[in-house]
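Supplementary Data S3. Sequence and structure tokens for construct A.
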Amino acid sequence: MKLAIVILNWNGRKLLEQFLPSVIEHSSSEANVYIADNASTDDSVSFIKSTFPSIKIIQNKENGGYAKGYNEALKDIDADVFCLLNSDVEVSKNWLTPIIETFKAESNTAIIQPKLLDYKKKDYFEYAGAAGGFIDKFGYPYCRGRIFNTIEKDNNQYNDTSEIFWASGACLFIRSTIFKTLNGFDEAFFAHMEEIDLCWRAKNLGYHIKYVSASTIYHVGGATLSNTNPKKTFLNFRNSLFALTKNAKGNIFFLIVTRLILDSIAGIKFLFELKFKHTIAIVKAHFSYYGHLSYLLKQRKTLNQSIKYYQKTSIVFEYFVNNKNNYESL
């Protein structure tokens, strides 16, 4: 099985200097490592060429974000499985072996995520994907190990291999044939939640997505765009609506109206917390969503919406009303 690890980079020389050595040390015997550079303006490319001459570099012509950056880069890579790996990730010894074994044993498994722990607090899960992702009826994402901003400690409670709904883009393994079947990421997302959309489309075609805890990585998170940045709030709220409209089975009108109400409550909450820029970001997210609605509905007509996509009707209600702040209590 030919495996390609592809690290998307944009002005990330310091991150590459810090984390690339662990990737090379623990991966080079089982995979080819690529840097896909999104038109960096720092010295990332020259640094890689001089310090890690064995690393293959793909230079994209522009910074098209996560979605377009990977779509462009993966066109030029010959592999059976792509590993899309953030530049702020430390990998561990033998991290690839359980992933490869799972792909070989399960022909209908299309996408796999390892256990994501926090690089700064290594006994805690990491926000971006923890022990695998799910969404509720209204499109809000959550994880085993993380619900909204509540992060669980890793007490081996998710030491298993299990079916999940979405795998984190911080480290996502996908069969190349499936990536091509799905036409890659939807570039309208630019960044954030495009992996949820990709996984959702794969699930609607009948493929399995797995979490494999025997493979462990450590993710810094927010190294490119912090959780406190209103741009991240904008992308998360908008792109959640994008994915819901394209892929959800059921009455979209009812879902979107409900989301409008719930997102308005979130905006009011930010106002009370004096986070005015985040309230504005939510408003902008909805206007951007409505501007893309024609495109999204056209996409919806071409896609399958075949599965029940949620475990819980409303994670918002469970978390904020019933005070259930960890996955096992849901």
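Construct B, processed identically:
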Amino acid sequence: MRVLGLLSGTSHDGIDVTVVDFAESDGALRGTVLHEDSVPYVPDLRARLVAALPPAPTTFAEVCELDTLIGQAFAEVAATASDVVGGVDAVCTHGQTVFHWVADGHALGTLQIGQPAWIAERVGAPVVSDVRIRDITAGGHGAPLVSFLDELLLRGRAGVSAAVNLGGIANVTVVGPDGLSAYDIGPANALVDAVVVAEGLNDRGYDADAAIARTGTVDDVLLAELLADPYYALPAPKSTGKEHFHLDYVRAHVDRMRPGIAPADLIRTLTELTVRTVAHDIRTAGIRFLAVSGGGCHNPLIMQGLREALPDIEVVLADELGAPVDSKEAILFALIGWCTLHGVAAVTPGGTGAREARILGTITPGAGPLRMPEPVDRVRSLTLR
């Protein structure tokens, strides 16, 4: 079965897409990546999306329009990818997260937009969507869902191993003899990106190759204030997002501790914040092998900082596990789509905090009748190539 995975992450800079051809035998799943790409949002759409995100006020009218416009953008990306490989059997879309509701340490709701009906209409294949909320109804955080894929890729390694994804938010999956745990560590690229855009530091909207951070200096006073955020001390499972870590969050800390700080010093300090928080949690967990993915793994200061802070830990890119660093999460959603259509719960309770695993998502039929494949008991292993 060919499944097309789609998402736009917490960096909300564009749409990642991959097509994976899955074959299963007695619970052993093999996936061949046929296509992968990343398509930036058109500037006007991205600007509207950013303007509507918390803590900015918005309207139901704007949410409705963005739901359609993002759905149409996803549909075009999906149709192009489907055409490249000669058609797909199904699509799984994550959509674009615009709010993740956490109160008193519990996730109570989550909202991803990008209407899947536009994708089903354009591609003609059934679409699995809205994949996070069912886990939340079972007591989970709906995140990090990538822990399901991470556990399959890390399974069988001796000792304690982990996978970290450095998107807008950094999340970690820890796999060891005592089982699995996963959670959101804190901001990876979200705060840096927000400052780069707000200050107009470049046209890319992020600190490519750490070019800005390299010209700055870590402000230890501001860094200590940022590290004192109570979120970092919360026990796992936990989840967060741009509802908490956003531009006004940075400005409030700067105004209180370092008004007038040079933009390059601020970017350097926020980059170091990611290194410190990730390295702390990796050391605490007793990890000996760490696979890194996401946009942050292209930031040489982050990768250098992690390797220097974790000298006794093997730090590699997720490519070594068969999951390319830039398409790993799109592969995840292709996997979730396959699992949902085959009746498999694509979530590990230890990864999200749910009481029990649940089959994820809602299915929008394609051009013809919805015909489900024969159910599969569970996925026992996964090999990617």
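The first helix runs from residue 43 to 52. The chain has a mean pLDDT of 95.
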